[in-house]
Write a structure and sequence with these properties.
246 residues, mainly alpha, 2 domains, two-stranded antiparallel sheet, 4 strands, 51% helix, HNH, HNH_nuc, HNH nuclease domain-containing protein
Length: 246
């Protein structure tokens, strides 16, 4: 999971979502009213899906697991909890069918004392403040209660394909960095661009982000990547500063 940048809505779409929210408020609001309104909102959903696809990591990956294709518009706070957020743009994320229908469903754990929700919202906060990814193992460790709940709800460690995929992607990232350096040294700029595009569009974008974060602690970068690859990482960011951004 990586931080995401949510773009503003076009005025016409924002007005349409507000109108539909007002209709739910007038009708109840109830879970049934929210779900019925969502089922019939074909055009707004198509527009929302397009915007979510543009802000999704990699090749339209799920905003939770980062592995599968994002196919569903997930309501971060489920309709069952707050029907008035059915058409709230700040409440929409792109999820794969497994994360949406098999893992999360209507689960939305909250702190029993404060009432604060305990899932990481990647469009509002940096997941790295709540989760740490270990590159060699491909597993996450929680740093906070939010991190713990997020790992549990989305099965980030319980799904073997995710753990293995992150571990394998670390190997891929190292290979791409090496290939980018080699192509550059040989003056093969077109080939270099291909490697850059591959890095930008990787599954498990959290792996690349974790690798990039190693630059903040050079001794750790040297230990995890080796001095040569750590230097290549530094060169990549110097020449392509967009990799510094989420």
């Amino acid at each position: 999971m990586i931080p995401l940048q949510r773009p503003p809505l076009a005025p016409a779409l924002a007005a349409e979502l507000a109108r539909r929210t007002a209709a739910i408020r007038t009708a109840g609001p109830t879970t049934a009213a929210g779900r019925a309104a969502w089922r019939t909102a074909r055009q707004p959903k198509a527009q929302l899906r397009l915007m979510l696809r543009r802000m999704a990591p990699g090749l339209e990956r799920c905003m939770y697991c980062g592995d599968n294709l994002g196919t569903d518009i997930d309501h971060f706070e489920p309709i069952a909890r707050d029907p008035l957020r059915t058409f709230d743009w700040q409440n929409h994320l792109l999820a794969c069918a497994h994360c949406n229908s098999n893992q999360k469903r209507d689960r939305f754990p909250c702190d029993p004392v404060t009432g604060e929700h305990l899932l990481v919202d990647p469009a509002r906060e940096d997941p790295a403040e709540h989760l740490v990814l270990y590159l060699e193992s491909g597993a996450y460790d929680p740093l906070t209660a939010k991190g713990e709940a997020t790992i549990d709800v989305f099965g980030l460690n319980a799904r073997p394909e995710l753990v293995r995929g992150r571990r394998m992607m670390f190997t891929v990232v190292k290979s791409l960095l090496t290939a980018w350096r080699t192509a550059g040294a040989a003056g093969r700029t077109a080939e270099q661009r291909e490697y850059l595009d591959s890095l930008r569009l990787l599954h498990h974008a959290d792996v690349l982000r974790t690798v990039l974060a190693l630059r903040r602690t050079p001794p750790l970068a040297d230990a995890v990547l080796g001095p040569d690859l750590a230097a290549t990482l530094g060169e990549l960011v110097r020449t392509h500063p967009e990799f510094e951004r989420p």
